[in-house]
Amino acid sequence: MGKDNLAKPTGLLLNVHREDVYIETKNIIREHPFVIRKYLDLTNKNLGKRVSASAWYHDDGKKHAKWQNACWKDYEEFLKSGKTQGLNLLKSGIRHEMESLRMHKHDTNKFSDVVTVAIAAHHAKLGKRFEERWEKDDNGAFKELWENIEKINLNLIFEKTLAEVKFQTAILKNYEFAGPRFYLQLADHRASIKESNKPVPQFKKFDYQFPPDWIKKPVQQIAENNWEDDLLLLRAPTGAGKTDAALLWARKQIENGRADRLVIAMPTRFTSNALSINISNSLSETGLYHSSAWFTRFFEDVKQSAEAEHAAKLEHEFARLLETPVTVCTIDHLLMALTHTREDHHAITFNLAHSCLVIDEADFYDEFTQANILELLKVLRELKVPVLLMSASLPESSLKMYQATGFQPKEIKEDISDNKRIRCQIKSINKYERIDDINGFLENSLQQPTIIYANTIAKAMDFYKWFQERNMKPILYHSRFTEPHKLKKEDNLLEKLGREAWKNGKAEGIAIMTQIGEMSVNISSNYMISEMCPADRLVQRIGRLSRFDKTIGQLDILIPHKNEEIYPAPYGQYIMKQGWQMNEALEKSIKLLECKQYNAFDFVELINRVYERIHEFSNITKLNADKLKEQIIQNWLILPLAEVKEDDDTTHIWKSRGIENQNDIFVFDPYDYLENNPQRFASLDKNKSKPCYFDAYKEFMYYKNQFAISCPQYLIQEGIKNGKVYQRDKIWIGDNREPISIWCANSYSPEIGLILDGTDAII
């Protein structure tokens, strides 16, 4: 009697695994009734049947003699060592998903194109990088299958239709194919985890209850009353209650069968962190996804046990895929998913189609990102995704821009209930070149809690030095701190200037912040000093002025100068050998801002005058947005040759933001780190001229999430010149065939952060 067919080197039988995956697909389908209905609505096809068929046949290729022989050998090794290395399977020369298709290639009644693609992609090998395996494995047995899938792909790409029609077709076709593709992967993954006797994340429903002892604020009532708008544009002052307005709006979408989950897209990682913490107490479950989110939420827990690490990792994966009832992420995460340059991008865009989306602080972007967001909105329009786009500083001129996406909002809805209340008094507008020019304003801050906004880190450091020379230590908060130190900074800011501090009469101290502090931290002061910035950014800063009561805040404005000319950085364009050229928004804001009292209505009027018209995007911006559309079409089915990493926000031809390429700088040498953490690593040679080893990629990520800071390339070069940055090579990670090199810095401190351009000489 022959051996039973194995599914895995652990000895799990193939028929058992197939049944497990099949049952898991039934669980997934049962837990996603809205998805089933919407899939039928958009494709006129039964998602459940397609996923079930994919699950039943997906591993049939494992019956091949080559695969079974290799698996049995690996099983014998497993019995001896207790480890599942799978080395014989790696050398078997056969991909089982390809063989599954070959076995049934004539069974057209079983395998539609969609089911074929789901099976072909269930181990993320349906891509140009794996083309050679499809064509040459098992003496070319799978070449015809690859050619047929490629034909499906190219039929759409080379379709002789208008570009806009092709774009729409690619969106809907990708949705149709992505559903079974993703659900088969999800079922297979969950079944495998359960087979290892480990828990999997539970599918949970959106559950938001407006606190019963609250009275709905006007902005919250507006959001609820206008839930039927496909694109709701909402403007309300800071502190008006927009977060709960968004949750009430989302509840309406879900109650009325327009979505089954909520995605909130924020401008930055810092704002998504803050919002996730803010709303987590009033929701069933909130997923947080961006590159440092895993560390922010889970790092301390996972050090406790392998079980805690497993649970945290799976929860983070759920959030990445938008499988949590609420996911807070950055806009870059959604934009990058549209490129379909990774297998999980298909899952993310499929789940986005079943979400209602809130784009918060929608005007807080460079024009590169704004143009990309317009393309995202076009995709969402095709997929019938309701969108709430909100900000305190949304100009009237933006209405036509958003109407051009295919959505048809008739107006910007606005909370005007508190528009006449005086919010602040702009006491003075002053040009300055040296810190000594503004001694009087800084001395005022010594007498009271104060927030100071600097436009650049270099200027923030100048302010910091002024206080340091007077034996004071303000809280310095900018983007070049490590993730753990950002968290400590935020905690410190909240302790000194947060709501509870003001409520208890204990507010004190001085905060010096750059743009990172415009939205992300819920603090307040009654006195503020701010360098001049465009009006919409200034309104965000003023949102931290007298935030917790109705005191009229006092504000002194500083206009930075250099060589007796306005120094506009970063609000403009840097031209080689000419310096900074101010952008129009800053120029108009300087002309229009007055020393007077302002209410919310005045701020809206100011922003409308500054952004009287939305300027046409530059050619480079248009080209970049076109590249996004091109990738949506080109990569709708088959992964491209170029590989991108999980947290990349650029591809080889497109990027989400119009900023210079960034690189990580590590502020703790890897050798020193490994010496201090020997229990987590297999080996360490203390001779720093020899290779440095991390056991696996996740171990390297532990290191990166604690000690890496992203910096533009020009600053890295500056750091190299002045001896503050050096390179460490021969960094080996897991089983990688090649080592990597990293940049390290020796000029970091938890108090002032990473300073590379010479300004830290003043400390």
Mean pLDDT over the residues: 89
- Radius of gyration equals 28 Å
> How many beta-strand runs?
24
* Poorly predicted regions: 679-689, 759-763
Overall body shape: globular
Can I get a quick summary?
By secondary structure, the protein is an alpha/beta fold. Helices cover 45% and strands 15% of the residues. The protein is globular, with a radius of gyration of 28 Å.
Secondary structure layout plus pairing:
Layout: H1 14-31, H2 33-43, H3 47-57, H4 65-81, H5 87-90, H6 96-103, H7 113-120, H8 131-140, H9 143-157, H10 163-195, H11 218-225, E1 231-235, H12 242-255, E2 261-266, H13 269-279, E3 286-289, H14 293-302, H15 306-320, E4 326-330, H16 331-338, H17 343-352, E5 355-360, H18 367-382, E6 387-391, H19 398-403, E7 413-414, E8 422-432, H20 439-445, E9 450-453, H21 457-468, E10 475-477, H22 483-497, H23 499-503, E11 510-513, E12 527-531, H24 535-542, E13 553-562, E14 565-566, E15 572-575, E16 579-582, H25 584-592, E17 597-599, H26 600-610, H27 619-634, E18 662-666, H28 670-676, E19 692-694, H29 697-707, E20 708-712, H30 713-721, E21 725-733, E22 740-745, E23 748-749, E24 753-754
Parallel strand pairs: 1-6, 1-7, 2-4, 2-5, 3-4, 5-6, 8-13, 9-11, 9-12, 10-11, 12-13, 18-22, 19-21
Antiparallel strand pairs: 8-17, 13-14, 15-16, 18-20, 21-22, 23-24
